Amino acid sequence: MVNKSLVEDIKGMLKAEAGAREADDVLKSFELIKQLTPEVDYLKVDVEESDYTCQIVFSDVKKEYWISISKGKVEYGAGKRDNPSVTITTSKEIGLGLFLGEVDANIISPLGKLGVGGNFTQLRLFQELYEDVIEEFRKNN
Predict the structure, then answer these.
(1) What is the distance between the terminal CA atoms of the chain, rounded to a whole angstrom?
(2) Would you give the distance in Å from CA 140 to the centre of its chain?
(3) 23-45, pLDDT tens digit by residue?
(4) CA atoms lying within 13 Å on the CB side of residue 32
(5) I need a labelling partner for 130 at 20 to 30 A (CA). Which of 39, 61, 96, 103 fits?
(6) What CATH number does residue 33 fall under?
């Protein structure tokens, strides 16, 4: 079950204007992935079958975060990881918008506002996962 405090935090982030959010709010999005995926069967399977690490770089505020999804475990933190499977570089506003389901990576990437590198199959798996998590959250909250 998703912690009530986290539910309220995510609801607040969804209501807040993009510029009012803090870069570290991305960690709350990662915690939502960690807490929600075991509760939804198809998300649980996705996490159990995955093995990748994503480095997220908010270039405008010079902050880096990572999330690792491997064999049923979700771990995350602030800072730089060595040899991530995927790197996503963007602004804080666009990055948080991605993880909150407000920005579509498929639209923003061709505009040059989203840089990606690494294994594109794993990037797509991660994109599907975070989109599905926020969709499930919105359905139930």
Answers:
(1) 12
(2) 19
(3) 999 999 999 999 999 999 999 99
(4) 28
(5) 61
(6) 3.30.1050.10
